[in-house]
Amino acid sequence: MNTGYNFIPRYGYVLTGGLSVDNQQVWAQIDTGSSALFFTWAEWYDGLTYPGASSLLPTGAYACPSCTVGPITDLKFEDGTEVHIFPHSGTLHSGSMSIDGITFGLVNFQDPPPMC
């Protein structure tokens, strides 16, 4: 797994691991204190900020124009940030490893809202 050290506004520097999900490059934050695997939903982020903004995120974003929001799970973090995620399944690749049908969350709400 490729790793990176990225700056997340309002959060600081984080260790990230590079993954490919359905042939889309994303960088998962390592050791969030959460057992949930989740990514920013590009369509939500671009709609909240401006078109194309998700392509500038240091963690990347998962594009899924045909996704519909399903059951919501609330995640609350120690710093007070809250995100809502809904489940989606895909194929995850990391190096030579491949996991078909892995379920992960897509973020469709954040409080406080993301900085753009």
Strand content: over 45%
Largest sheet: 7 strands, mixed
pLDDT < 50 runs, ≥5 residues: none
- The average pLDDT score comes to 89
Can you put this structure into words, describing what you see?
The N and C termini lie far apart (28 Å). The protein is globular. The protein is built from one helix and seven strands; from the N terminus they run ββββαβββ. Strands 1, 2, 3, 4, 5, 6 and 7 form a seven-stranded mixed sheet that branches. The mean pLDDT is 89. Strand 6 and strand 7 (97-111) form a beta hairpin. It has one domain (3-111): Beta Barrel (Cathepsin D, subunit A, domain 1). With 116 residues, it is mainly β.
Task: List the defining traits of the structure above.
7-stranded mixed sheet, 116 residues, mainly beta
Write the layout of secondary structure elements.
Elements: E1 3-8, E2 12-21, E3 24-29, E4 38-40, H1 42-48, E5 73-76, E6 82-94, E7 97-111
Parallel strand pairs: 4-7
Antiparallel strand pairs: 1-2, 2-3, 2-6, 5-6, 6-7
Compact description:
The protein is mainly beta. It is built from one helix and seven strands, in the order ββββαβββ. Strands 1, 2, 3, 4, 5, 6 and 7 form a seven-stranded mixed β-sheet that branches.
